[in-house]
Amino acid sequence: MPGERIVLAFLELMQPSLPDCAASLYGEGVRSLRVVPVFLGMGGHVKDGLPKLAAEIRARHPDLAITVDPPIGEQPGVTAAIARAIAK
Questions:
Q1: pLDDT value at position 73?
Q2: How many domains does the chain have?
Q3: Which residue range forms the structural domain that includes residue 52?
Q4: Which helix (H) or strand (E) holds 50?
Q5: Can you tell me the distance from the alpha carbon of 45 to that of 9, in angstroms, rounded to the nearest whole number?
Q6: Is residue 59 assigned to a domain?
């Protein structure tokens, strides 16, 4: 969509962190953030770490709307692409 952009952020060990990225975008006037976890499934990072980080971000920026999608590996199109790739 026009005006949208994709920014890469990390949950731990690498930079930029999700909270830092969210703060930077907020400073630029962004008030709606969609987080798409690039994980194959619903592991500990997605179940525990990501919700905690999202809550911290919401506490710092109450007027920032944050949505968290299911892990990319659980989305039907990605699952179908993986199945096609391994069926060869």
A1: 85
A2: 1
A3: 18-86
A4: helix 50-60
A5: 13
A6: yes
